Amino acid sequence: MSRLIVISNRVSAPTGSHSGAQGGLAVALQAALAEMGGIWFGWSGEQTDAFTGQVNLHRGDGYTTATVDLEEQDIEEYYNGYANRTLWPLFHYRIDLAEYERGFAGGYQRANERFAETVRPLVEEEDAVWIQDYHMIPLGQELRNRGCANRIGFFLHTPWPPRRLLGTLPEAAELVETMFAYDLIGFHTQEWLESFCDFAQRDMGAEIEDGDVIRYRGRSVRVIVCPIGIDAGEFRTLSDSETARDTFRQMKLSATGRSMIVGVDRLDYSKGLEERFLGYERFLREHPETRKEVFLLQIAPPSRAAVETYQRIRNVLETLSGRINGEHADLDWVPIRYVNQGYSRDVLAGVYRASKIGLVTPLRDGMNLVAKEYVAAQDPEDPGVLILSRFAGAAAQMEEAVLVNPYSAEEISDAILQALRMPRAERIRRWRAMMDGIEREDVLWWRKRFTDALLEVPLAGPKAGAT
Ligand code: ADQ
């Protein structure tokens, strides 16, 4: 049986416990590794003076983690540079924020060569390799260049941008060409998959074969839609935990009879936080008679603080929440509670359950797991309402949410009123339909769908020996 080699920018150590602060993705990949055995490889998060390629190996229960330190220039050009200042904004349709610099592109390529060089000796003949996300797009090609004839799959956790936007990236065609080194590429939605095929076909002259196989210069790759889910069972257990119950009670007490609206996001411009605050402000202005019935709790821990656009969004939100509270607050009521820190998953489960409305309004999101977690944490007898951006990948699976255009303050305002007034029977009907989907297509379903498809690729296939 094949072992699994998971490769991602950062690595989670085996914990044997599901209650920690780790995300659903880590849990899913750990489960896959525990079942198939293997290695999880990536950057250690540490900086070294000069790159040595020395691997830090930790053998845990079921699988081994292998990490490597990067030097300062790699971290600047590869991680803070190309990954977070070039590809992240571009893939989230923000070409106004994308920085195109040859130094970043060169550093990205170099770091991926270094990853390939380091992990290659760890890969055995029968292993299946699964590379995660936009940090490592050319890694499959680099492994092929080093004689790796294994099955190699790639999963993209972000959106894939429309071809006209991707075309602004100077090395777009070269980058996409490297993706033909993979046997399988997975996307969260049909829309991202079609955008990928559209660029490959119309801008590069690739051809579609058999519906889901795309061919370019003698190499072909299978593309599939494989939406990630959450561990629904784990989330239900978390919601029943003592911490979640305590949090629920505390939140209800501090809400003093008001309905809580909750937003939980990394502090990132793609999450539409500024637009969300403006939509909420519009609601406060348009519905003075109802406004004191609610308050918004926005939890947003800072991320990627080394990148300037992230510092800017933080300032914008501080100003905006200050202005809204300044204009609307009263002796006994503050409209926005804005909290800049992360919480453990059991605390979050309690917060979600205590909230009448989950407000998830990214401008673009590959999937968005918070939307699914919010639904999974609800009381089946009296569930809250999910307001969801139609531009999140999750919207393709969660049509029973109240779907909004996150750029429209009016739609956000209307949706808040609709959610507040929604009869219990309708809330239960919508919740049940979403919950069925969350339970059916959970995170184990996701990783099995991907690894099964990868293992279907014949070992001595056309990629073997390709360079
Ligand atoms: P992210 O952009 O990080 O992930 P998301 O899918 O919402 O976004 O996942 C965030 C995870 O972090 C969730 O499990 C959530 O509970 C947790 N989290 C968020 N804010 C938190 C806070 N304040 N405290 C504690 N935990 C918090 C990327 C893509 C997404 C895609 C995922 C998985 O951008 O589109 O859904 O990968 O593929």
From TrEMBL:
It comes from the Bacteria. Keywords: Glycosyltransferase, Transferase. Belongs to the glycosyltransferase 20 family. GO terms for biological process: trehalose biosynthetic process. This is Trehalose 6-phosphate synthase. Its EC number is 2.4.1.15. The lineage of its organism: Bacteria, Pseudomonadati, Pseudomonadota, Alphaproteobacteria, Sphingomonadales. Coiled coil: none annotated. One of its GO terms (molecular function) is alpha,alpha-trehalose-phosphate synthase (UDP-forming) activity.
